[in-house]
Design a protein that fits this description.
8-stranded mixed sheet; globular; 6-stranded parallel sheet; alpha/beta; Rossmann fold; Dihydrodipicolinate Reductase, domain 2; 329 residues
Length: 329
């Protein structure tokens, strides 16, 4: 089977990680990069051994690449993914895949119409550590409560506090703590428990309109879940799924670096820890399998849809707003 030629949109550190994972993967190769500036594109291409650099999107999408990875600012995910789909390219788009569920539904329909695959590059969504946690949940009895905690002090927040607003704290670009950090927690919750019966959410909105942190309370039949996320505070707490007979503990939700089991009255049992390499390799492998017809993309697409529906409601209740033109479908 022919190797999938991948074009990259976005030259930030997340794209660096993705490129490293692609270089270690089978059935896929880096073929092109799109950048707004030739200098930055050539610098990125040289770092990763990418043979072609484009500064015109139409030329990029008309090239011989078969797939596109999108790691541009959040508000560009949907329009750029739609452009790629209509050019017949498979798409792996960084989280959040779109700004809202309606955009995702439109994108997924367009992908099906054009016979291509579109997947969200959501690391825990493809990480086998989540399945390890799911299996461990069978040993803790009836689950009654879950708390998914992802609070990570942004490296750019100090500059915001000094009065300099970088892209990461600009809500006009579709940024918010929910979109940048909280989406991991919502996605893992949906993977493990599905769509909640109800959502109650509140956020802290910074002076420039950027959401800095939030707390979400979710209800399910017989259990409750809480999501705590932040870009302006740090947390040392693990995420915990609590059953009547014990608990499952999860490390950092983006990398799923640790999963452990603690049954009531017993010592903690570490199930996965200190795993070698970056877990983006799992999403790359699943993307290749889906493109090759070896895996059905619909379950992953459905989890993204439900996650965005929950995030839509969180945004509605918490007053997280983006420019109207960025949310059009």
């Amino acid at each position: 089977m022919n190797e999938l030629k991948l074009g990259v949109i976005g030259t930030n550190f997340v794209s660096d990680w993705l490129c490293d994972s692609v270089k270690a993967a089978e059935g896929i190769a880096l073929a092109a990069v799109y950048s707004r500036t030739r200098e930055r594109g050539e610098e990125f291409a040289a770092k990763h051994g990418i043979p072609a650099v484009y500064t015109d999107m139409e030329d990029f999408l008309s090239s011989e690449i078969g797939a596109v990875y999108i790691a541009s600012p959040n508000f560009l995910h949907y329009p750029q993914a739609m452009m790629a789909v209509w050019h017949g390219k498979h798409v792996l788009v960084e989280k959040p895949a779109c700004l809202n569920a309606a955009q995702w539904e439109t994108l997924r329909a367009a992908a099906e119409q054009n016979g291509v695959v579109v997947l969200e590059a959501m690391r825990p969504g493809h990480d086998p550590a989540v399945e390890t946690a799911r299996e461990a949940m069978r040993q803790i009895g009836t689950v009654r409560r879950a708390c998914f905690d992802f609070c990570q002090y942004s490296s750019r927040y100090d500059r915001y506090r000094r009065g300099e607003i970088l892209n990461a704290f600009n809500p006009a670009l579709g940024n918010a703590a929910l979109m940048d950090i909280g989406c991991y927690a919502v996605h893992v919750c949906v993977m493990l428990f599905g769509e909640p019966e109800s959502v109650y959410a509140r956020s802290v909105i910074l002076q420039n309109g950027m959401e800095g942190m939030g707390t979400v309370f979710l209800t399910y039949p017989g259990m409750q879940a809480e999501i705590v996320y932040s870009k302006i505070t740090e947390s040392a707490n693990p995420s915990v799924i609590t059953g009547e007979d014990g608990a499952v503990l999860l490390g950092k939700l983006s990398t799923m670096e640790r999963v452990s089991l603690r049954r009531r009255g017993e010592a903690e049992q570490v199930l996965t820890a200190d795993r070698e390499g970056d877990n983006m390799r799992y999403e790359v492998a699943d993307f290749v399998r889906a493109v090759n017809g070896e895996a059905d993309p619909k379950p992953w697409q459905e989890t993204t849809r439900v996650t965005l529906r929950v995030m839509d409601e969180i945004r509605r209740q918490s007053g997280i707003a983006f420019p109207p033109e960025t949310e059009c479908t």
